[in-house]
Amino acid sequence: ILAGLAVIAFWVWLKRRTEEPLADVSLLADRTVAMTNFATLLIGFGMFASFILIPQLVEAPEATGYGFGFSATQAGLVMLPAALMMLFAGPLSGRIGAKYGNKLPLALGGLISGAGLVGMGLDHGSALSIVLWNVLSSTGVGLAFAAMPNLIMEVVPVQRTGEATGFNTLIRSVGSSLGSQVTASILTGTILLATGFPTSEGFRTAFLVGAAVSIFAGVLALLIPRSGHRHAIVSEEMGAASMLPEPALAADEK
Q1: Torsion angles phi and psi, residue 233, rounded to 5
Q2: In this structure, CATH architecture of domain 29-253
Q3: 151-185 in b/e burial notation, b at 16+ Cβ within 10 A?
Q4: Neighbouring C-beta atoms of residue 97, cutoff 10 Å
Q5: Nearest residue to 85 (alpha-carbon basis) of 121, 134, 145
Q6: Residue 203: count of CB within 10 angstroms of its CB
Q7: C-alpha of 221 from chain center
Q8: C-alpha count within 13 angstroms, C-beta hemisphere, residue 197
Q9: Which of 105, 110, 108 is nearest to 147 (CA)?
Q10: Could you give the CA distance from residue 120 to residue 50 in angstroms, rounded to a whole number?
Q11: What's the first-to-final CA gap in the chain, in angstroms?
């Protein structure tokens, strides 16, 4: 870990002294970008916590007192409705963002995702309950993930949007990695020697930790400063931002 941090520090130092850096790390200093990226990390944490927990929970033997003995295919089907819901949450996020500002769907996403994780932590006694709570949680994730690049593209120069959104995607992956590792550590700490499986309390704790992180992300999103200018035109339908340089627009008009 220390070696990795040292490499990152050297890379930042090097890029800040390069005249034309491949990745402009100064973009990360903008308050809106920094807060959006931090919220992204937290949302990624909560999302991957559920990705790790649900399959292990439903595939655990019934003898554990909480598992259902599902196969890997059945576990995938349990998670399928939530994945499909994310497809619909993205466009909805774009419409909300276009009307009220993109930090609102990010905040709602964190809070809704956290509510779903709380539900799974307290009520995972049936497969139907897990499906419904996971659908709620994934709806929040979809709302949040669609809003993140829009928030960033509102404040960074147009020619730097690729770098800024690339950083955001990388930070999302870091959050996902942290979520999976912390979740695995919580479960490992509750494994019973007699069964070789975690306890139901272990799953509850892990879900609630993910919920707390996601809810904190939602609260943090409410504190993101409102952008006084927009460098990109946000697409209401797709929940993403699209832009066309002025020279190209002028050429089309001719």
Answers
A1: -90, 125
A2: Up-down Bundle (1.20)
A3: bbbbbbeeebbebbbebbeebbeebbebbbebbbe
A4: 25
A5: 134
A6: 25
A7: 12
A8: 19
A9: 105
A10: 9
A11: 57
DSSP H or E stretch at residue 173:
helix 161-188
User: What tokens appear for 52 in the block?
Assistant: 């790790």
Q: Answer whether 197's CB lies under 8 Å from 64's CB.
A: yes
Rounded to the nearest 5°, which phi and psi values hold at 245?
A: -60, 150
Any idea what DSSP says for residue 29?
G
Tokens of 56: 């292990």
Name every residue whose Cβ is closer than 8 Å to that of residue 36 and which is 6 or more positions away in sequence: 106, 148, 151, 152, 168, 221, 224
- Reported as a single tens digit per residue, the pLDDT across 219-242 is 999 999 876 545 444 444 444 443
Angle of helix 103-122 versus helix 31-59 axis, rounded to 10: 20
Encoded tokens for 15 = 């890029």
The residue behind tokens 């963002």 is 97
pLDDT in tens, 24-80: 666 777 888 889 999 999 999 999 888 899 999 999 999 888 999 999 999 999 999
| Helix, strand or coil, per DSSP, at residue 159 | helix
Residue tagged 């259902």 (tokens) = 68
